[in-house]
Design a protein that fits this description.
- Pfam families: PDXDC1-like_cen (PF22930), PDXDC1-like_cen2 (PF22937).
- Residues 759-768 have a biased composition (Acidic residues).
- Residues 737-746 have a biased composition (Basic and acidic residues).
- It comes from Onychostoma macrolepis.
- The protein is an alpha+beta fold.
- Among the domains are: 140-327, 3-Layer(aba) Sandwich (Aspartate Aminotransferase, domain 2); 355-395 and 411-480, Aspartate Aminotransferase, domain 1 (Alpha-Beta Complex); 498-594.
- It has a 7-stranded mixed beta sheet, with helices on both faces.
- Helix 1 (11-29) runs parallel beside helix 3 and helix 7 (143-156) crosses helix 15 (318-324).
- The longest helix is centred in the C-terminal third of the chain and has 51 residues, at 577-627.
């Protein structure tokens, strides 16, 4: 028996597919250009575009430009493209094929588009258990809701196509949506339909019974009755099968009963609709198959880039569907389904189910591990089958704590926990990027971390080991969060004990807290005083950031109301809060004193020079009266000084730059003599003892930086060198006046005066 002839592929289609596949791989890899081209790109691709070239460019040059725009800053910013597999290439190929198919003759184009649209609609209805449904394909995932709402208007207002919106004034339509719906969804719907915002009714969620993210059905029933009694028309209800925040599902069965009772249209959307393709589905999600319409987003669920969203709906009147824009007589409009048509065939039924099942298993894997972690609270609708996992760090009062108490401090401090959870989510997303976690703000729970693999796993390629890495990182961060929460109050108490520090209360900061160094009051005006505070705290922040420590220092959150502050980041178990605060005070005092010196330097030096000149002139006059005129004559004075030396005492003077006055040198030399005596006795300074490997602001014996018996002497010396700025004690403060003195010795003898042997003299320095 002869086999049927096999039709050969159109060579144009095959060639286009090969070229497109090669072009996408080249653009993704970023290896198109040569070394000369790379150098030229660095010099020119960011420049202002020039005019369109008259002779045109070849394909390679155009792809070169596209690649430069895609990968230009990858080396600097570390951008990572979304994972695009072979199924993604099929979806991208569909857009090119749609342009190619659109040039076919009209009759052939009509047959082809009808086949593509009918196949895709049939597959989707069977996959998601939506019997006898039609499909509308759209780019904006909100557009399908706009179309079905227009269909509901056409259904309830029979003369709407001829009378228009004049009919709506007699019987005002009302659209109901849950408070947990997407932000701005109802406003977008009203703006697209030219309805007033009074047509939108927000239904609150449960407050006493059931999930806090589910629509309150009893309250909805009351609102509908009130609207009907006031002459309004309940038109449409928007429900969730997986809220955008927590992934909870409304009571769809009960909502469907209300819609049937009041002749309303029920529309359902949400990420949990993806689980309809699985063999075992929860009854709450299965109820979505009885709704009037539902919006699906297969692109993120299956990792398909640039595929349209799909709204499945049921309606018996094709004319009204056409009037609402759900169907089109233009064949080109039907080509929107082509990328999805290609991708679904490439994946197959088993491949689609496997991807959804894999994402659900990842959620269950994470949920099981979270149950074993202390201080982590989860917010899931169904622990046995929840595609979205939302969790939050929440310090339990019963949890053991060392070095401080959390009771009482947590009362009313939800903002602090929100800040810590925001930091937790950002760190997890940064350190485990393949997990796809993000931060979400929930009205009741506050700031939480969300893991929704149905929306991210297919695009990122998330696997079980990524979830394990996420759990591992989370286990490492929980002690840091607990210690930071415990040490916040200790840090505040230590700061309030320092007169030169002000504690900055900012509960949105995820760390120990903020401080501001306040210099001692002076006679400066307000502007100069403010500038001085800004300068001191800026220099103090730079000095703290240069320290070899694991603590993070910053100028605060981006929108912080307080200015000229220093914020300290997360803490660890072995943090020495007292040493940290003392270091800030010590550094701030040094910067303040140095600032005073430079601020007063010009005027002080000018006054000091003038005073020194007056005293030197007075000393010369006294010398002339004491020694006589003859001793001032060069030759005669030398002879007289040889035979009859003058026993004149040298009066040393020091110029204090900080105070701007001349002092005697006797205290200086007495202090130096005392220091030499202490040095001879080998008396070391009083410093904080630090052990080998012990970093700044760390308590010895707490944490991983404990002393090892094999620590070398070099490590010990280096440890002391690193902590030298912090260990400055009162001895250094006592030396501050000595560092700011300039010695000025009055000249009381002529340059050629002979001094008897054994008599100590001091050099003469004159400031001019």
């Amino acid at each position: 028996m002869d086999k049927p002839p096999v039709k050969m592929m159109d060579p144009t289609l095959a060639e286009m597919g090969n070229h497109l596949s090669d072009a996408m791989k080249i653009l993704e890899s970023g290896k198109l250009e040569s070394e000369q081209g790379e150098e030229r790109r660095k010099l020119s691709w960011k420049d202002i575009p020039g005019p369109l070239q008259g002779d045109g460019q070849d394909v390679v040059s155009i792809l070169q430009l596209v690649q430069n725009l895609m990968h230009g800053d990858d080396d600097k910013q570390g951008h990572r493209m979304q994972y695009v597999g072979e199924q993604g290439h099929m979806a991208l190929l569909g857009h090119s094929l749609a342009a190619y198919i659109s040039v076919l003759e009209r009759e052939r184009l009509r047959k082809l588009t009808t086949r593509i649209l009918s196949d895709t609609t049939l597959w989707l209805c069977r996959l998601f258990r939506y019997e006898n449904g039609s499909a509308y394909y759209h780019e904006d995932d909100r557009e399908g809701l706009v179309k079905v709402c227009r269909l509901a208007i056409n259904t309830h207002y029979e003369d709407f196509t001829t009378e228009g919106f004049t009919l709506l004034s007699s019987k005002h339509p009302v659209i109901y949506q849950s408070a947990a719906c997407r932000t701005g969804l109802g406003q977008h719907l009203c703006s697209q339909l030219a309805l007033p915002l009074s047509s939108l009714c927000i239904v609150p969620c449960n407050t006493m019974f059931g999930s806090l993210h589910q629509m309150d059905v009893a309250l909805l029933d009351k609102l509908i009755k009130d609207d009907r009694e006031s002459g309004k028309l309940p038109l449409l209800l928007i429900a969730n099968a997986g809220t955008p925040g927590a992934g909870h599902t409304d009571k769809l069965s009960r909502l469907k009963e209300l819609c049937v009772q009041y002749n309303m249209w029920l529309h359902v959307e949400g990420v949990n609709l993806a689980t309809l393709v699985l063999g075992q589905v929860s009854s709450t999600v299965t109820a979505a198959t009885k709704c009037d319409s539902m919006t699906l987003t297969p692109g993120p669920w299956l990792g398909l880039p640039a595929v349209p969203a799909v709204t499945l709906y049921r309606h018996e009147d094709p004319a009204l569907s056409l009037a609402a824009g759900l169907t089109s007589s233009q064949p080109v409009e039907k080509l929107r389904a082509l990328p999805l048509w290609l991708s679904l065939q490439y994946l197959g039924h088993d491949g689609i189910v496997q991807r959804i099942k894999h994402a659900s298993q990842l959620s269950q894997q994470l949920l099981e591990h979270l149950k074993t972690l202390a201080s982590i609270k989860t917010s899931v609708e169904d622990e046995l089958n929840s595609p979205v996992v939302v969790f939050r760090f929440s310090q339990d009062n019963s949890a053991p704590s060392s070095g401080g108490s959390v009771e009482g401090y947590l009362a009313g401090e939800r903002d602090i926990l929100d800040a810590l959870n925001r930091w937790l989510g950002e760190q997890l997303a940064q350190q485990v990027p393949l997990s796809g976690v993000d931060v979400v703000e929930l009205e009741d729970e506050g700031t939480c971390v969300r893991f929704s693999p149905l929306m991210t796993a297919a695009a990122l390629g998330t696997q079980e080991n990524d979830v394990a890495a996420l759990v591992e990182k989370l286990g490492e961060m929980i002690p840091v969060l607990s210690c930071t929460l415990r040490f916040r109050q200790d840090f505040k108490d230590e700061v309030l004990q320092q007169a030169s520090l002000s504690y900055i209360e900012d509960q949105s900061w995820s760390g120990l807290g903020g401080v501001r160094y306040e210099p001692r009051t002076t006679d400066l005006d307000e502007d100069k005083s403010q500038h001085r505070v800004e300068k001191i705290n800026s220099d103090l922040l730079k000095k703290l950031m240069e320290l070899d420590t694991e603590l993070y220092f910053s100028d605060g959150p981006e929108f912080c109301e307080e200015k000229n502050c220093i914020f300290i980041g997360m803490a660890t178990e072995d943090l020495d809060v007292a040493e940290l605060v003392e270091t800030i005070v010590s550094f701030g005092r040094d910067i303040e004193e140095s600032g005073k010196l430079f601020e007063n330097m010009t005027e002080v030096v000018r006054r000091g020079i003038h005073e020194a000149e007056q005293q030197l002139q007075k000393a010369n006059e006294e010398k002339l009266m004491e020694e006589g005129v003859l001793r001032q004559i060069p030759l005669v004075g030398s002879v007289l000084n040889w035979f009859s030396p003058v026993q004149a005492s040298v009066k040393g003077r020091t110029f204090n730059l900080a105070e701007g006055c001349l002092d005697s040198t006797e205290p200086v030399y007495s202090v130096k003599a005392q220091m030499n005596k202490e040095a001879s006795l080998d008396s070391p300074k009083s410093v904080t003892k630090r052990f080998p490997g012990q970093k700044l602001f760390r308590r010895h014996g707490a944490g991983s930086d404990s002393v090892s018996d094999t620590s070398s002497v070099s490590q010990l010396e280096e440890s002391f060198r690193e902590t030298a700025p912090v260990q400055a004690s009162d001895a250094e403060e006592a030396e501050v006046p000595q560092e700011h003195h300039v010695h000025i010795v009055e000249e009381t003898a002529s340059s050629d005066q002979r001094v008897p042997e054994g008599q100590e003299t001091e050099s003469v320095d004159t400031l001019r």
